[in-house]
Amino acid sequence: MVPADEDGRLMRTDLFTDPVDGLDEALSAVDSFDRALVSGLLRPQPDQAAGLAALAAAVGGTPLAAAVAEAADKAAAGAAGEDHLVALAAARTALMGSVHDALTERVADITGRHPAEPTGPRAPSEEPGANVLAAARAWLCDLARAGWQGIDHELVAGAAPVVSAMLPDLRLRRQATLLDGFAAELAASCPGATLDRVPVRRWADLWTRALLLTLPGAVGTPAAAPATGRLLPLGIDLQEHATAVQAQVHAVFEPADGTPPRLVHAAVSAPKPDTVVGAGLWQLLRPHMSLLAAVGEGRAVALDGMPLTDEGDLVWDDERARTGEPADPFGTARVALATATDPVTAPLDRHPARIAVPVLLEGYTAEEDGEGRPVLALAGHRLPVDTDRIPTAGPLTPEAVAASGACLGLLRWDAGEFVLQPLAVETTVRKKTVAVHAGAWAGGTADKTGARAEKAATDSVAVLRERAGKLLRA
Predict the structure, then answer these.
(1) pLDDT of residue 6
(2) Residues 242, 260: Cα–Cα separation, whole Å
(3) Which residue of 52, 119, 169, 215 pairs with 72 in a disulfide if CB–CB is 3.0 to 4.6 A?
């Protein structure tokens, strides 16, 4: 076990590899259903019927039992309607939610931190675009019937008019972005009959989430309260897709009223062309959030009435933020991280892939496992490092992680094990301790490598904006 902070708490590193009760059984039922989607539910085979039955059995004894049992029978007979497919998606989501909850409890045992109590349910909001959501639902049901091996360009193209109808409505932007990205992945894999490898769980995840987000009441307005106090950034998680990019800032919020600090996050996203990569991504994001500059400069931010949800999301408004004094993320982690409360998780967000818990590790030895992957060995236990999540839009590299003595990162669950996504490391350069941050270039940089990448990206973005302007004028 390794000391995690100055008040005597210990991080239970021995729990990284201990089995979690019931986890394998729940994931096995999910995998059985996911395999049924590969060849589609139009003419199911016996092995697909067995997968559907396994899903129904896994939720037996729950409020979903009767509806899912009927849906599984109908789907096994090739007669599943929209309501039946929605019931199967709900059952799969419930199982993944149970996996999320079990892993979240394990993470709480590891870190010694526990989620805050929610202050209230999501507020009902006006239901937007019922017709277009119904169209999206119909397209997703057609996908399930065809299966991933049955997709073709004509089927996938059916998403385009739905996405186009959603995008003008800001209330539907979330669903539109998900559908657009999902359709883009499917289109790049057409025809499905020629696929050598199908991303079975990923596509089932996307299909399930997209389907449930089309239901009435699925997207409510989260309960939010004004937050006033000091925001101490820990790091930036940059997530890139072919059609979109998002930067999520993880931070500790210290309320001005003296209540316990909270772990929070603020995110900004933007659509992107596939030609803008690397450091150029920051140019798409910077105009929408001043917080990125503060993180790049290593400064705290004073908040005045910034809306903050139970899920720990800051609804960012530059008018309510003011850049403050220098704030070292490692200093913040050592002093405040262990006493901060974790945010709660919204029901539809309960999925193991959504687990991203800030942790500080020190006193480890960087090694490699049998497959050449970097791992951090501490107190006799080994934690794999997910170097694939280190963005190229910053100075942090796998080599810097391997040479580090302290790592600030996100504890995640991936492929059946806990892994660490580095956000920043402390390493020694010429006998001096130096911090290297993944988000160091978020607000701009004088670093030679970063500056060259910025210049190349600037030229690319300028050309794209010029072409877009010509199209609009035409």
Answers:
(1) 38
(2) 39
(3) 52
Task: Name which of 147, 56, 127 is nearest 94 in CA terms.
Answer: 56
Residues 463, 184: Cα–Cα separation, whole Å: 24
Task: Provide the phi-psi class of 58: left if phi over 0, else alpha when psi is between -120 and 50, else beta.
Answer: alpha
pTM of the predicted structure, to 2 decimals: 0.88
- Cis check for the bond before 271: say yes or no (omega within 30 of 0): no
SS3 at position 24: helix
Residue 200 scores a pLDDT above 90: yes
The burial class, CB within 10 Å (0-12 / 13-18 / 19+), for 328 is: middle
pLDDT of residue 85: 98
Q: CA–CA separation, 10 vs 26, rounded Å?
A: 30
Distance CA 28, CA 38 (A): 16
- Which of 429, 409, 398, 397 is CA-nearest to residue 362? 409
pLDDT at 7: 43
Model confidence band, residue 29 (pLDDT cutoffs 50, 70, 90): very high
CA distances from 362 to 11, 399, 400, 422 (A): 11, 17, 15, 13
Arithmetic mean of pLDDT, 100-117? 87
Among 289, 294, 304, 292, smallest CA distance to 324 is for 294
277: Cβ–Cβ under 8 A, 6 or more apart, which residues?
Answer: 240, 392, 457
- The rounded distance, in Å, linking the Cα atoms of 39 and 384 is 34
User: What angle separates helix 130-146 from helix 159-166, to the nearest 10 degrees?
Assistant: 150
d(CA 140, CA 146): 10
Kindly state the average pLDDT of the residues 124-145: 88
Average pLDDT value for residue range 316-340: 94
What mean pLDDT is reported for the chain?
89
How confident is the model over 270-286, as a mean pLDDT?
83
pLDDT for 250 equals 97
Q: Which amino acid is present at 20?
A: V
AA letter at 457:
A
- Which residue from 336, 350, 385, 389 is spatially nearest to 365, judged by alpha carbons? 385
Question: How would you classify residue 308: left for phi > 0, otherwise alpha for psi between -120 and 50, otherwise beta?
Answer: beta
d(CA 346, CA 341): 16
Closest CA to 297 of 334, 329, 274, 267: 329
CA–CA distance, 110 with 335 (Å, rounded to integer): 18
The pLDDT assigned to 152 comes to 96
E strand segments, 256-391: 262-271, 299-309, 321-326, 357-362, 365-368, 374-378, 381-384
Q: Token match 């002093």: residue?
A: 335
Other Cβ atoms closer than 10 A to 106: 20
